[in-house]
């Protein structure tokens, strides 16, 4: 018997033949919890930031419950399939931060969605975006630098991140990639704040 | 690193331990995540090298993983993942995840030296009088405590359990024990803190519950939710558990274990409840550590619930009709200007009833566990800004309102166990001025739980008046 990852209530697991044949994953959260997430109207994000999403991110990032990356695996997979790109690139974490959190949540999201990805950038600062206001974020120097050995000229790239608040992170990453003369840059965030 | 694990140096071997009093005050009795300690790294490193602080991995890996904090050993309650800190496979405990994740690479810290010495002289400023029966119970409890024995106090609702505690705590402070009052409910913690602090003004009283501001000080009296006790180890000489039968404590053996492990080796437990199980009574009676307080502090008998049919109430409410009998009952309460509580079995049924009722009766509201305005609404009922509240079983205990009248809608539902029904009936007639009141169980088919609740209340009333 499995329990819902968010509210710990018992899950009714009745796998259909279709699910078994296509090898789809079984449910990870209950229907009630699923309904609390609001679909986003924006083209480049999947969900809106609401109370349920706040709780989800708290459990994933603060409590470091890395089981939760599986929750949006199917949705993320379907959304990313729509993009015609060569490389999927998650926004990287600083090495220090990574050691603190013990896992890179964006990487894990992609892993659980069964998607190949590649890191092209390195983060240069350990400061947290969530500690700053919009003004401060706009005045910052670029958060990233290109990894020394990557060859990406002429490639089509999709940037993936968990949360879009002001767009600074995505902007900085796009700028660096464009300087490296990629063919096109797209982006997708799980949540739009 | 392994050399430091679980090493305890007897204090007498160190001639003059020089340590930071703040670290001692904070960490004494606690089992805390090393990374979350609110002190500078240099200070902590010094204490570790001097072996004043022991650090150990959060999860011990053997043939069975073992969580050092919640003592969980079930394999399915651990999650394996690839960790960037261990550079490989790691696992974390799912049982106590909500208190902050404990994984193999999380270090837990523990204070190894003696606790701080309290310089304050314990003085009880509580001046109230105990009834003869209350006095007898507190004498029984004290004698158990001095023998180092656990004790169960079975007291009817509204008997004045907290008052019995005052002489017990006073004695414990004279013995220089560290005391914890634990309860499953945050509401009870918030209510208890000012009462205890007022009774013992010279002693540091600390409240611990999720979401409160943390204090670094050592407190001789800690009032906490039972969940917080996961973070203590062999800390208290006396733990008083209030409302032992309340959810989630009664069902969760990890929580019960947490209480036991935070009790020191010579410590004792004092359990308080209005509705103990038969097994609990039997096991404590055997050890002569059971006291029964059958009379309310004002001496008036407990109100006996009335059982009335309310056929097809669920269908009617869903069709947006409020059954006539219920309306009559509410109007009766309104006529005598008494606040009322209506208990429902589920949130959606309650909300359906609220929608219809609010059109007929002004100033009503509904509360449930996740309602952010829960405390405010209860306060408004107390201030008579609301004439009544619709509620789920969340308000079954810990609420005292003068002249309250209570009805249960759908008492046959499985959520209303005998204990719940006794607790609900106990909300009525709790003040000296209004010592009687009405409790009605509206039902669609009578159940044994309702009748046994009635029988138990009648029986205790009889006992209370022949003694």
Name the descriptors.
heterodimer; A: 193 residues; alpha/beta; Rossmann fold; four-stranded parallel sheet; two-stranded antiparallel ribbon; 34% helix; B: 467 residues; 3 domains; seven-stranded parallel sheet; six-stranded parallel sheet; 13 helices; 20 strands; 31% helix; globular; transferase (chain A)
Q: Please, could you describe this protein's structure?
A:
The complex is a heterodimer of chains A (193) and B (467). Chain A contains 8 helices and 6 strands. With 193 residues, chain A is α/β, with parallel strands linked by helices. In chain A, the strands form 2 sheets. Chain A has a 4-stranded parallel sheet, sandwiched between helices. Chain A has a two-stranded antiparallel ribbon with strand order 3-4. In chain A, β5 (156-164), α8 and β6 (184-192) form a beta-alpha-beta unit. The longest helix of chain A has 12 residues, at 51-62. In chain B, 31% of the residues lie in helices and 21% in strands. The longest helix of chain B has 19 residues, at 448-466. The N and C termini of chain B lie far apart (63 Å). The model of chain B has no long low-confidence stretch (mean pLDDT 89). Classes of the chains: A alpha/beta (193), B alpha/beta (467). The A-B interface holds A 63-67, 98-104 and B 79, 81-86, 90, 92, 97-98, 100-101, 103, 105. Chain B: Pfam families: DEAD, Helicase_C. Chain B: This is DNA/RNA helicase. Chain B: InterPro entries: DEAD/DEAH_box_helicase_dom (IPR011545), Helicase_ATP-bd (IPR014001), Helicase_C-like (IPR001650), P-loop_NTPase (IPR027417).
């Amino acid at each position: 018997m499995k329990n819902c990852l968010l509210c710990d209530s018992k899950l009714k697991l009745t796998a259909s033949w279709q699910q078994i044949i296509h090898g789809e994953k079984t449910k990870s959260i209950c229907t009630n919890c699923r309904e609390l997430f609001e679909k986003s109207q924006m083209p480049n994000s999947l969900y809106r930031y609401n109370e349920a999403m706040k709780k989800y991110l708290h459990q994933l990032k603060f409590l470091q419950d890395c089981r939760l990356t599986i929750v949006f695996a199917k949705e993320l997979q379907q959304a990313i399939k729509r993009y015609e790109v060569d490389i999927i690139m998650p926004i990287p974490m600083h090495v220090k931060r990574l050691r603190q959190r013990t896992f890179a949540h964006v990487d894990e999201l992609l892993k659980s969605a069964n998607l190949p990805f590649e890191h092209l950038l390195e983060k240069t600062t350990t400061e947290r975006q969530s500690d700053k206001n919009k003004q401060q974020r706009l005045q910052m120097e670029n958060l990233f630098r290109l990894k020394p050995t990557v060859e990406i000229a002429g490639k089509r790239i999709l940037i993936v991140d968990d949360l879009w608040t002001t767009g600074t992170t995505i902007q900085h990453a796009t700028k660096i990639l464009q300087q490296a003369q990629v063919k096109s840059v797209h982006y997708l965030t799980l949540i739009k704040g | 690193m392994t050399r430091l694990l679980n090493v305890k140096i007897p204090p007498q071997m160190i001639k003059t331990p020089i340590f930071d009093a703040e670290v001692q005050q904070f960490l004494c009795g606690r089992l805390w995540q090393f990374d979350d300690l609110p002190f500078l790294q240099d200070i902590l490193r010094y204490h570790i090298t001097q072996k004043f602080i022991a650090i150990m991995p959060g999860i011990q890996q053997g043939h069975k993983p073992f969580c050092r904090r919640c003592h969980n050993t079930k394999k399915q309650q651990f999650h394996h993942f690839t960790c960037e800190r261990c550079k490989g496979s790691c696992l974390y405990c799912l049982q106590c995840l909500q208190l902050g994740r404990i994984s193999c690479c999380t270090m837990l810290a523990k204070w190894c030296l003696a606790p701080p010495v309290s310089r304050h002289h314990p003085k009880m400023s509580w001046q109230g009088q105990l009834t003869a029966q209350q006095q007898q119970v507190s004498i029984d409890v004290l004698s158990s405590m001095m023998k180092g024995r656990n004790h169960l106090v079975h007291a009817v609702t509204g008997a004045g359990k907290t008052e019995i505690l005052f002489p017990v705590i006073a004695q414990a402070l004279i013995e220089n024990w560290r005391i914890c009052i634990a309860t499953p409910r945050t509401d009870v913690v918030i209510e208890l803190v000012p009462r205890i602090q007022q009774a013992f003004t010279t002693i540091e009283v600390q409240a611990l519950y999720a979401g409160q501001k943390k204090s670094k000080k050592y407190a001789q009296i800690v009032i906490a939710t039972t969940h917080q006790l996961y973070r203590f180890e062999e800390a208290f000489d006396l733990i008083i558990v209030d409302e032992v039968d309340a959810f989630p404590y009664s069902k969760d053996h990890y929580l019960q274990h947490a209480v036991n492990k935070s009790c020191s080796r010579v410590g004792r437990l004092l359990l308080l409840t209005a509705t103990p199980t038969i097994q609990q009574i039997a096991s404590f009676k055997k050890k002569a550590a059971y006291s029964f307080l059958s009379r309310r502090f004002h001496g008036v008998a407990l109100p006996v619930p009335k059982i009335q049919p309310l056929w097809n109430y669920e269908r009617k409410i869903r069709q947006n009709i409020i059954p006539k009998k219920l309306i009559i009952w509410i109007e009766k309460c309104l006529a005598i200007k008494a606040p009322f509580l209506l208990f429902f079995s589920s949130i959606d049924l309650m909300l359906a009833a609220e929608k219809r009722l609010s059109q007929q009766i002004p100033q009503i509201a509904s509360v449930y566990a996740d309602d952010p305005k829960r405390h405010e609404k209860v306060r408004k009922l107390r201030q008579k800004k609301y004439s009544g509240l619709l509620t789920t079983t969340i308000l079954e205990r810990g609420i005292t309102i003068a002249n309250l009248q209570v009805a249960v809608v759908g008492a046959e539902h499985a959520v209303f166990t005998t204990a719940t029904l006794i607790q609900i009936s106990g909300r009525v007639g709790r003040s000296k001025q209004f010592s009687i009141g009405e409790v009605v169980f509206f039902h669609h088919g009578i159940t044994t739980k309702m009748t046994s609740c009635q029988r138990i209340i009648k029986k205790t009333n009889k006992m209370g008046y022949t003694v």
